[in-house]
Amino acid sequence: MAEEESVQVEEGPLPVLKWDQGLFEQITKGFQFPPEWNARYPRQGQTAVDALPGYITLFEDFFLQGNFQLPATEFMASILHFYGFHISQMSPTGMVRVRHFEFLCRSQGMEPTVEKFWAFYQLIRNIGFYSFGNRGAAKKILISSPKSFHDWKMKFLFVREEVIPIAMIFRESDKIDKQELPIPKGADWYLKLLATPNRIFGENVLVAAHISDKWPENSEEVSVLRFNDREAHIFKQFFPPLVGPWACTRYDRGSLTGMNK
User: Which InterPro entries does this one have (predicted)?
Assistant: First the structure.
């Protein structure tokens, strides 16, 4: 049985846009949307279902709360394909769970797959949107997830559908089959994922892991770690086989920041 978000509320028409255009621009600039994605701020009076042909709807909280990235990863595409729904039908809670699971797998050096994901989660539907609840027989791997997203259906944008690398379909069936497949409780990968603590990481850790959305891919800077008055190239410190022996240098910026090559 899937837990969380299981209470069904009567569905109704979606609320109209209630989102400042300046916040839209912060998303498109902060997450470095290129011009060819043709991100559009909705017109007043539009709702999330009003995307033009060739466009999809994405919600602000996908990015601010769910750590969503564009173009979407292969794992995100595989989730949408396997469960058979459109990304515009996903709730921010569902996005949080998918992206957290992907990060968790990669932190353990394993490839995230749908087969691993369904060992922990069951597809659920609430108020017309899809998410994932914990499978009752599986241990939780995300404990401190956000409980609610204020007015999230009113805060959305339109963008070219090519940012998702599969042809998506809108799921119309309300019927969701209960997941009966056994949970591989003795598998090494299952035990590794259970052993990983849940923790909220700051931007400095995301920079160090090279997964920060705010760190340009073509940046001429490298991340450095500061200890007292000395600083070291992060990847020379932790991955010497890849970059050779590391050396410290004097540097007076933040404890974890960028340094010109």
Answer: Transposase_28 (IPR007321)
Range of the domain at 151: 2-195
Residue 6 pLDDT: 36
> Could you check whether the bond before residue 182 is cis, i.e. omega within 30 degrees of 0?
no
**Do 29 and 114 belong to one domain?**
yes
Bridge partner list, 231:
226, 249
At 195-251, the pLDDT tens digits run 876 655 666 666 666 667 666 666 666 666 666 677 666 555 444 443 433 333 333
Are residues 69 and 184 both part of a single domain? yes
Tell me the pTM: 0.72
Number of domains in the chain: 2
Residues 180 and 152 in one domain: yes
Q: By C-alpha distance, which of 76, 66, 99, 91 is closest to 166?
A: 76
φ, ψ (nearest 5 deg) of residue 46: -80, 155
